[in-house]
Every structure is written in structure tokens, then in C-alpha cells.
Amino acid sequence: MDSRERLLTALEGRQPDRVPISTHELCALNSRAWENQDPSYKRLMAAIREHTDAVAMWNPRCDATVFASAAPVEMETETRRDGAVLHTRRTLRHDGWTLTSATRETDGVHTVWPTEPWCKSPEDVDLALSIPYVPLTFDFSDFARISQEVGRGGIVMATVPDALLLTADLMEFSEFTIWAQTETEHFAQALAEMHRRNMQNLRRMLDAGVVDLYRIVGPEYATPPMLPPSFFERFVVPHVSEMVNLIHAYGSRTRVHCHGRIGQVLDLILATGADALDPCEGPPQGDIELGEIKRRTAGRMCLFGNVQLGLLETGTEAEVDETVRKCMDEAKAGGGFVIMPTSTPMNSPLSPVVERNLLRFIESAREYGRY
Question: What pTM did the predictor assign?
Fold first, then answer.
């Protein structure tokens, strides 16, 4: 089997020639990914290219402005640098009111951290959603490039938010959880509006073109202890199920991304009808072992996981080897499993320890993953 066949077989819950190996967000078959431009990642990316099965994370460009909308808005952007840290502050003005947000980026760390949310209260959310919604337009022209680069070496995966993520991210996380539990019906109204926008945007994305797999992010916002399982049932399951059904109608597959303590909501995740689940975190970050997830999903869902990034950052090669072997023992049988770290490095330069351990992860996965 080639890598594409191997991954698609696992996603169908069947047994390929060996367990597919994914390095999560590190993809050696995307020339525009930052890790392929960084000299410190060169040796690792060469090994990933030769020995793993690419799940290339790629999204079409779109014209989004704010709040899942392409609405034209009055926006001012200010930046300032404090040593290695770039601070960005945005000011949005509409119909006589003002909202602000801020982010932080650190040199050598490939991510953007929010430091101030747009909305400081539920009333601010009402203001934000009072801006008339304009559906997004998607540009699929770059798909030919990524599809050619990936080829038979893997599959292409887009990432799409659910309504919970879109709504929760309007506020600071602790404020969102308080709002959801103390003004639940108000929260539900905002969530319903975000879901309406999200479904229209998703349909327009799919109309522009369809990729192999869609990763749905956001359900983890409603896992215990953040919110009780009843909230997951109300605010995740129906919305994600509708997304899954739409993506399936276009002939593609879905993967729910849900960090944290999924033990109490695993049956609810299954109820969405999604084809796969990641990253299946074990204790102490999660609350359920990989083998138990495999038993409870009983072939109804492909599992991606669950080698912890913390182990790759601080562990020994022997510990990595043992962890990979244990993952295979718990989830390999019968297929429907892709071994993968729960996260990947975002720092530059690459730590020699992380490089060493990811190379061991790949080598051990090839050894223990044969059927």
C-alpha cells in the first residue's frame, strides 16, 4: 500500500498493511509550511517525508473579516514590539460602539496567542453579532499545488470550527464558561446564530472544492471539567452532527478534534457520526486509556493518537519506544488506528531532544505497526 491507500483504509475502520504514522501538524509534503523552510528541522522533515504518512493540513483562502463573516468593517490595527514579542491590538467600530482585541507573537514560536478577546461581556457578544452577516467566499486555486505535492504520499485535511468554538472564542475562556452556565439561554441564542453562519460558510467551502478529510475543532470546550456532559450533548452533538452529515453528503470524511477528558462524553462524540477522533489523550491530561477508547468505539471510529508531546519534549528514547509499543498493543488490532503525537513542536530552532524523540517515534512506529 502507498500512504494514501493506508490512511484511507484506516479511516474506513479497516486494517492496512501497517499502522499509518502521522506527525500531526508537521507535514513534509507541503512546501509552504514553515517547518520545511527552517534549517533546524531539515533532518527531521527528511525522515518524515520518507517514513510517515502525510495528513497535510491545508485550507482554502477566504475573505473572512470578523465573527465568521465577510462583512466590511471599520478596523484599526496597531502593533508594537517589546523585545522578541510582537503585540497587535485591533479596534473595531460599528454603529457608534467599539470593541477591541489583542494578540501576542513571540519570535521563534510559530503561533499567535490571544491576550484580549473581542467581547468582555455577553452584551458585547450581542453587539458583535449585530453586524450584518456576509457569507464567506473561498479561493480553492492553491489546491492543485498541495494535491500535487502530497500525491500518493498521504491525504489533504482542512480544519473547520464548530459553533461552540466560534462562540466561546468571542470571550475570555473562564468568562465563556460562566456565561454558558449562568445565562444559558442567552448563550444558546448566540451559539445558534454562529451555527447558522458556520453551516452556510461550510457549504460554500465545500461548493468551492472538497478535500479528503475535515477536522472539526471546538468540542473540547465543552468537556469536563469546563462544562458538564449535558452541555456537550446540547451544544456540541447536534451542531457537529449537522456538519458531519453535510461533509458526508459531499463525499468526504470527518475527524473530531477533542483534547482533554473525553471519557464522560465519548458516547456523545460517537453520536455525531464522525469518522475519526483525535488526539485520544491518556491520563493525566485525559481521563481514559487508549485501549478503553478502542473498546468503546468498537470499530465505529478511526482513532488518531496518543503519544504525548510532553514525552517527546522531555522523555528518553527508551520511554518513547515503550509508549509507542503500548499504543500499538492497545489500538492496533483490527485496523482503524493512526499513531500520532497529541501535538507537535512550534519552536524554532528545533530542540535536539524533540528531534531525537520524534525520530525514535517514527522508527518504533514502523517496527511495532506491522500487521
Answer: 0.97
